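Dear colleague,

Thank you for sharing your sequence with our group. We've completed the structure prediction you requested, and as agreed, I am returning the results in plain text so they can be pasted directly into your records. Please verify that the sequence below matches your submission; if there's any discrepancy, let me know and we will rerun it promptly.
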Amino acid sequence: MARTSLKALGFGLTAGGTFSLLTAWLFYDLEPLSLVLLAGVPLFIRSFEKAQKEKRMLALDIQFKDALLYFRNGLDAGYSPEHSIVDAARGLESLYGRKNEITKGFETMAGKISTGTSLEQAFTEFAENTGVQRIKEFADLFRILKRTGGNLNRVIRRTIANLTDSINLRRDLNVVIAAKKGEFNIMSAIPYGILLYLKLLAPEMSAPLYHNTFGISFMTGVLLCCILCYIFGRMVIKRTLHV
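Please find the predicted structure tokens below.
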């Protein structure tokens, strides 16, 4: 089971807790039982972790493409694949800094090679550590090419081209998704806006909705409708955009 990062936990407690308390206040005027809504905080944590994972995958694709460019430049200059990995590590450090994940990965590979580990093995371990399927596939192909003497330069060029196309497509898709999600979130916030307006500017109209059986039942029905509409809207977005 993957450990929850402190950053995700902090976001979940802050954003999730705030949203849960806001919902409890608007729909139930903070009735004690309404605090059960805080049980929704883990959903915010999982949502944040998913978004961070997608962000990391895109960043690693971009950085791996740059790493392959440095690697290919070394090969074009006549260096061995092992020496080209070392040069790529230096280039990545100047481009992304020493603390960057891809830089650390290539520096680790360079260190393993210097201690006698084969480049194929070092590359495979690096790919496994990233957990990125595209990098794993390249590592498998690289291992086969090293054994069979295939055209490594051509494969690297094709991989770079595929990565570039994939990155551009995902960036364009992210723009569309962000726009659709923005519209959807605005529509989802309308019930909250109406309730906030009533509580702040017309409290005498909203008072009958709280602290009585009818009001609690009615607001629970409204909240359930909001939740169902939100779930349905998310399903429509996913099916429409295939995300």
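Summary note from our side: The chain is about 80% helix and 0% strand.

Kind regards,
the structure core
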